[in-house]
Amino acid sequence: MSASAPQPIYLNDYRPPAYRVTHTELKFDLVSSATRVIARLHLERHPERQEGELPLVLDGEQLRLLHIAIDGQALEDDEYDVNESHLTVYRVPSTFVLDTEVEVDPEANTALEGLYLSNGMFCTQCEAEGFRRITFYPDRPDVMATFSTTVIGDKGSLPVLLSNGNPVEQGDLPNGKHFVTWDDPHPKPCYLFALVAGDLQKVEDHFTTMSGRDVTLQLWVEEENLSKTDHAMASLKRAMKWDEETYGREYDLDRFMIVAVNDFNMGAMENKGLNIFNSAAVLTHPQTATDATFQRVEGIVAHEYFHNWSGNRVTCRDWFQLSLKEGFTVFRDQCFSADTNSAPVKRIEDVSFFRTAQFAEDAGPTAHPVQPDHYIEIGNFYTLTIYEKGAEIVRMLRNLLGWEAFRQGSDLYFQRYDGQAVTIEDFVECMAEVSGLDLGQFMRWYFQAGTPEIDAIGEYDYAKGEYRLTLRQRTPPTPDQHEKLPLHIPVRMGLVGTKSGKDLSMTLEGESLGTDAVIHLRDEEQEFVFTDIAEAPVPSLLRGFSAPVKLRFPYGREDLAFLLQHDSDGFNRWDSGQRLALLALDDLIAAHRNGVEKVMDSRVTEAFRGLLTTDTDDKAVLAEMLTLPSEAYIAEQQPVVDVDAIHAARTFVKQALALALRDEFMAVYRANQSDAPYVPEPRQIAQRSLKNVALSYLMAIEDEEAVELARNQFEDGHNMTDVRTALTLLTHSSRGDIADPALKAFGEKWAHDPLVMDQWFSIQVTRPQSDALERVKFLMDHPAFSLTNPNKVRALIGAFAGQNRVNFHRADGEGYRLLADVVIELNKLNPEIAARIITPLTRWQRFDESRQALMKAELERIRAEELSSNVYEVIEKALATA
Ligand code: B3K
Ligand code: ZN
User: For a substitution probing ligand 1, which of 270, 271, 336 has the most ligand atoms within 8 Å of its CB?
Assistant: First the structure.
């Protein structure tokens, strides 16, 4: 346990800062272990904080103060104080200039917050509170200043010196050094500050904005990565165009830069004019990146670009408003990807991820509202709830208002608050104002944690021609909130006639709603009576996942098979297939636990046969329909998770389907093989994913022909999507005779490429065979592995603990022990990553008693260490209910 327990910060305690910065001048003299940062801050008393005399209190951590002066006058020792988190100057004028000079140590910075070194290159990460590790400053987003930054570095080793804005001056200095001065005219909070210096090469392109301005686009990478930049650059241009056409938002500087770095805690960061990216989130090449990576890169490049308006021009007042920028920006990037690729598949992928991972977060000990009301460590709040649930709320707003009014609301928001730091309430108020809607109850979505559950029942009265639908909502209590209020839940639905197979016209209280409509659940329980319903319907509820809730309806398997065939909503067609498979899986899980023979539900087999033999244009959707619910999603449905039974049941279904439909899968595989040169475009991606889903079924029975197909695909595959699928299927099969030499060859071929080696690690540690844990330990000693590189930690430890459920949850607790050992090490090196990687252990409540005890013992073992505030907060929450 920490010496003094970190204390929470409360939303209710918000006050504007006593002093604000109007202009910031920085000078960096870059030296690996001793960088000098000279800062000149132009400060003034905040107009809303005029009460009496107030000291100047600035944030600052791990800084060595060398000099301090106010209005040119050096301060005496008794005029200020410095401790491990703050600098206090007791008396200051109402307007003044503060000069400080500090020394920082980028080389020793393994937390990757503030200024650090990655592969010999200097870079920064300031969100949320990293700037305080660079210089003394009011490190809070409601302090917005213009910045002028001079970067000085060795001309030989650091030929490129970058910061935010536009370069205004550069030149040579004595001792082989040079400098560049950058000006950023847009006032910004310090979390958007960035600096990069290194031996980098650039790829350059141009974009003409809608008002005719020319913007220079630059992608900066290490020389060996120059061939991996095309896709990110093309994605950036598409995103810029899309934001102009869709939201009327134009870029506002003369240049936009992206830099790729190897050591990065997150995917990327939207620093003004100088986005810094994890190399995994920007570099692609057909030989090294899969289709999924190409799509992820496109989405992240767009996301960071979109932040230029939703986040940078209009920013957050405080970190409780984080979802203001993240929820809105995720929604924007989701819509961009949907427009650029397959919209239904994008929705299916997003929802299936959301229902698995966010629902689990909402049901676990770290559950929190989209607008939290307190936190200990803001670094722990970059969560699925803030990002993805926040995006679902914005999506509901878009649907409630309709696109046109939503766009008006967005225009009003950007115009009214340009250059300001605002709140979630300000955003929603704009939406209420333009639409005239009362969004009072709707706001509860932001304040209330937990996943609402809807229990629906329906009854058809043939004599009256009426369909009565009753919806009951309930949100289960979460650790910090025991009482929950009813939410305003938009339920998009249709009634599908069992005779006609068509959507029926719906009339509700005399009002005709058409065949696809939204009904509004606001009370705990509501009854909806649809009249003039001429045939018995099956309801299709929550179409397109119109609200982030769990919806239960007592569907029979025939109903689901019917909807799978007839629902006009593509999303719900897919979801009916998932529900049908889940019902069959439930039986098989029970059979496994009871030691009874497993029998395959023929309705599932027939539904799959139908899918495989019906012609479709949408191969991407078909591939999704043929994909069984993941083990993690199945686990979400179980009261007590039995990882072995889930794995056995799912494997059984795959094998049973492959046995019954072997010829059909083989035909699909062959029909979708192609020698066309790789292009990451939707049609090809769909074809590859369908082919690879078919191969995964064929490999479930591992007959010689299937193994041969996989081997050939591995050997001939001219793109990483095919090669990786084949290698994964072989590695996860019993055919070590083929997999082991393939893994060896692959590892040798790609030893020089860290991003491919990440995949090589993940493939091996996710294999279900019982030696997986030993492989993790073995691979942790591999020269390509490093605990200080977050990508490696995620690829090896994260993939094992998060995706290899049977082995992580080994009954002997060795999986838990391994993860706890890593967390204890990472707690000292990189607290943010440590607090993230621990997640699977925090979900102990979901397992049987013996596993619970083993998991809790590991959490206790971590608790006994001297903890960072990040790990401390997560551990305390995880053990609070123990
Ligand atoms: N805003 C960044 C998150 C950085 C947080 C690091 N602690 C990435 C993004 O959402 O775009
Ligand atoms: Zn973001």
Answer: 270
Alpha carbons within 13 angstroms on the beta-carbon side of residue 862 total 37
Over residues 65-103, the pLDDT tens digits come to 999 999 999 999 999 999 999 999 999 999 999 999 999
Please tell me the predicted confidence (pLDDT) of residue 3: 55
Q: Is the CB of 270 under 6 A from ligand 1?
A: yes
**Ligand with minimal distance to 111 CA:** 1
488-497: average pLDDT:
98
Whether 283 lines ligand 1, by a CB cut-off of 6 Å, is no
CA of 799 to the centre of ligand 1 (A): 21
Asked whether the beta carbons of 138 and 58 are under 8 A apart, the reply is yes
Q: How far is the CA of 379 from the centre of ligand 2 (A)?
A: 13
Domain pair 314-447 / 750-882, same fold: no
Contact 152, 179 (CB under 8 A): yes
**Ramachandran quadrant class, 236 (left: phi over 0; alpha: psi -120 to 50; beta: rest):** alpha
| Angle, helix 720-731 to helix 682-701, in steps of 10 degrees | 20
H helices, E strands: number in the chain: 31, 33
Which residue minimizes the CA distance to atom 9 of ligand 1?
269
Task: Give the predicted TM-score (pTM) of the model.
Answer: 0.98
Q: Where along the chain do its domains lie?
A: 9-199, 314-447, 453-547, 750-882
pLDDT of residue 122 exceeding 70, the answer is yes
Residue of 296, 332, 382 to mutate, ligand 1, most atoms within 8 A of C-beta = 382
What is the DSSP annotation of 247-306?
H-----SSEEEEEEES--SSSEE--TTEEEEEGGGT---TTT--HHHHHHHHHHHHHHHH
**9-199, CATH topology level:** Immunoglobulin-like (2.60.40)
Rounded-to-integer distance, Cα 872 and Cα 5, Å: 8
From 3.90.180.10, 2.60.40.420, 3.30.300.20, 1.25.50.10, which CATH number describes the 750-882 domain? Answer: 1.25.50.10
The answer to whether the CB of 874 falls within 8 A of the CB of 840 is no
Q: Which CATH number fits domain 314-447: 3.30.420.40, 1.10.287.990, 1.10.390.10, 2.120.10.30?
A: 1.10.390.10
**pLDDT of res. 2:** 44
CATH topology of domain 453-547: Immunoglobulin-like (2.60.40)
Q: Which amino acid is at 462?
A: Y
- Ligand 1, atom 1: closest residue by C-alpha: 269
